[in-house]
Amino acid sequence: MDILYYLQTFDHFLIYLVTSFVLFLIGTFIFKWLTPYSERDLIRAGNVAVSLKLLGKMAGLVVVLQSAIRSSINLVDLAIWALIAIIIQVLLHFVLEHAFTRNTNLANEVEKGNVAVGLFLGGISVLVGIIVAATISY
Q1: Residue 55 belongs to what domain range?
Q2: Global pTM?
Q3: pLDDT digits (tens, 9 = 90+) for 64-78
């Protein structure tokens, strides 16, 4: 075991870690920005549906980011693929959300605490994240 190798590459680890967290925060902010209610306030009030939806979105982002990290050849490549994947994930989430539940106002249902809807939407985000992550693996 060559401990010197790990010490020499530790800076790369930190750079990728910080970059990935920033990209994660950007993706989470985009999802929160597109949500018509305050997720923070509703989670504080004990709304499990909102918590499940947000957790699913975050998990989907993490799946996409891990694929971008594994597939990237440098930091710029990571940022480009991660941002493309985040945008695609947001768009696909909304398309699937509306395709499966056209006659239901999902935002209102989640805001009211409908756990089934929150879990469904969070699950869609994870599934879309897995698909998007697989497509950026080259």
Answers
A1: 3-135
A2: 0.83
A3: 899 988 888 888 988
pLDDT tens for 98-126 read 777 677 777 788 888 999 989 988 998 89
How many independent structural domains does the chain possess?
A: 1
**DSSP E strand boundaries for 62-138:** none
Q: What are phi and psi of 122, to 5 degrees?
A: -65, -40
The residues, ordered by sequence, that sit 6+ positions from 81 with a Cβ below 8 Å of its Cβ are 68, 71, 72, 136
Nearest CA-CA partner of 85 in 37, 15, 138? 138
Tell me if residue 10 falls in helix, strand or coil: helix
Name the DSSP class of 84. H
Residue 56: burial class (beta carbons within 10 Å; 0-12, 13-18, 19+) = buried
Alpha-carbon distance of 25 to 92, in angstroms, equals 19
The CA distance from 28 to 20, in Å, is 12
Interatomic CA distance for residues 64 and 117, integer angstroms: 23
